[in-house]
Amino acid sequence: MASESQIFVLLDHLEHKVYDLSILAAEQQQRIAQLESEVSRLQETNREQERQLRQPKKGAEAAAVMPKSKDFVNLVSSSLPDAVAREAVKHQLDEYIRDLDRCIAHLSTLS
Hints:
Residues 41-65 are annotated as: Disordered. By secondary structure, the chain is mainly alpha-helical. The protein has helices at 4-65, 69-79, 83-110. 0% of the residues are buried. The chain folds into two domains: 1-66; 67-111. It has three helices and no strands. Helix 2 packs antiparallel against helix 3 (83-110).
């Protein structure tokens, strides 16, 4: 059987181990909090970059859906029998398209 002094030494040793473990646990909790903060920051950065990647795609999708001015000219040519009326509409459509292109370019410079 262990003597009383040996029991006190073992108990003191156990207390030191518990103290060391509690300090280690506190340090690990701080590290976990730092890592969680970094994860949140990186997720926000990721979301922002994904938003930026999607923005140019919206413009590209709109450009892909919008037919070119030559397509409009063909549409006008096939639907209007009068040559003078076709030319007037073609000219007006070309003007509108140029205005739209200028507006799009201006809006692109703003963002």
